[in-house]
């Protein structure tokens, strides 16, 4: 019996020593890990874990922009965050957390979050959605409207230039497209005038086209404008009038419109008066 008890005691001592040794070994391993440089994979995992902690919802519900990428945003529902991307070419409009809206980039400030997703180009469309200038930089007034990577070609009205900054047609001096300024487009230079005349934005005829004329903004920057069909610019009055009343332009539309068509433009039939239905006025007559 004593032998058995002694044996059990010895086994207990050995077990206790073994547990102490295991604890010491674990402490030693932890200390070694703390001083051992982490692998790149371990560091990236830590960064991902940190990002998970950072990417929290600012509010329990709403739509919030990414801090670096203009077409990325986050959908928060009851504190649960979901990362989303706008369609290629559009950016997230962060005007209100209550609205989930992707828009064309014109008019949206992406200066603090300039990154964008990788483009998905197609013929004439650098991105799937948007307004884009013609590939030929010398083509100033043609641009493409792209939807789902399919394009429509659009031409600006005469005298205007496509602006890549605003996505619309604009005056050459405002569009500021390289190679498409007033000097490059128009064979016309505003005459030198004094300040009082310049302040009136003087007008001058287009010597090659009776229907058009130039407005010199502040007496310096020419903008080409035009009269409506059948009319021409009268240099004497500085206004548009019927071409047949202006001696130097009386035959301008001869090869375009017949005399009958010009007569119809100059003397349009009176608009028919609207036919009156039942009167909605309240009657002042007493009811019987």
TrEMBL record:
Which residue ranges are recorded for the region named Disordered?
24-54, 260-288
Please name the SMART domains in this protein's record.
ChtBD2 (SM00494)
Record keyword Repeat present: yes
Which controlled-vocabulary keywords does the entry list? Answer: Chitin-binding, Disulfide bond, Glycoprotein, Repeat, Signal
Molecular function per GO: chitin binding
- Keyword Nucleotide-binding (UniProt): no
Q: Which residues form the signal peptide?
A: 1-16
Q: Specify the Chitin-binding type-2 domain's residue ranges.
A: 54-112, 122-182, 187-251
Chain intervals with Acidic residues compositional bias: 44-54
- Name one cellular component (GO) term: extracellular region
> Where is the sequence biased in composition, kind Basic residues?
279-288
Q: Return any one Pfam family short name.
A: CBM_14
User: Which PANTHER family did the record assign?
Assistant: BCDNA.GH02976, CHITIN BINDING PERITROPHIN-A
Name it.
Answer: Chitin-binding type-2 domain-containing protein
Q: Which organism is it from?
A: Cardiocondyla obscurior
């Amino acid at each position: 019996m004593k032998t058995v008890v002694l044996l059990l005691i010895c086994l207990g001592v050995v077990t206790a020593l073994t547990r102490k040794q295991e604890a010491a070994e674990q402490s030693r391993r932890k200390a070694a890990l703390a001083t051992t440089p982490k692998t790149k994979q371990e560091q990236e995992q830590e960064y991902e874990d940190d990002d998970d902690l950072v990417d929290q919802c600012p509010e329990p519900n709403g739509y919030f922009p990414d801090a670096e990428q203009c077409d990325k945003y986050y959908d928060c529902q009851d504190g649960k965050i979901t990362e989303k991307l706008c369609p290629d070419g559009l950016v997230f409009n962060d005007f209100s957390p209550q609205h989930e809206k992707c828009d064309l980039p014109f008019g949206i400030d992406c200066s603090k979050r300039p990154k964008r997703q990788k483009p998905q180009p197609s013929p004439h469309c650098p991105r799937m959605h948007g307004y884009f200038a013609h590939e030929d930089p010398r083509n100033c007034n043609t641009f493409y409207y792209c939807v789902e990577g399919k394009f429509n070609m659009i031409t600006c009205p005469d005298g205007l230039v496509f602006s890549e900054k605003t996505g619309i047609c604009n005056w050459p001096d405002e569009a500021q497209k390289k190679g498409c300024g007033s000097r490059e487009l128009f064979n016309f230079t505003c005459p030198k005038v004094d300040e009082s005349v310049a302040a009136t934005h003087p007008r001058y005829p287009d010597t090659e086209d009776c229907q058009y004329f130039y407005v010199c903004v502040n007496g310096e920057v020419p903008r080409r404008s035009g009269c409506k069909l059948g009319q021409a610019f009268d240099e004497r009055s500085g206004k548009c009038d019927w071409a047949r009343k202006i001696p130097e332009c009386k035959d301008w539309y001869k090869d375009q419109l017949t005399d009958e068509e010009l007569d119809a433009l100059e003397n349009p039939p009176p608009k028919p008066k609207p036919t009156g239905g039942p009167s909605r006025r309240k009657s002042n007559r007493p009811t019987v």
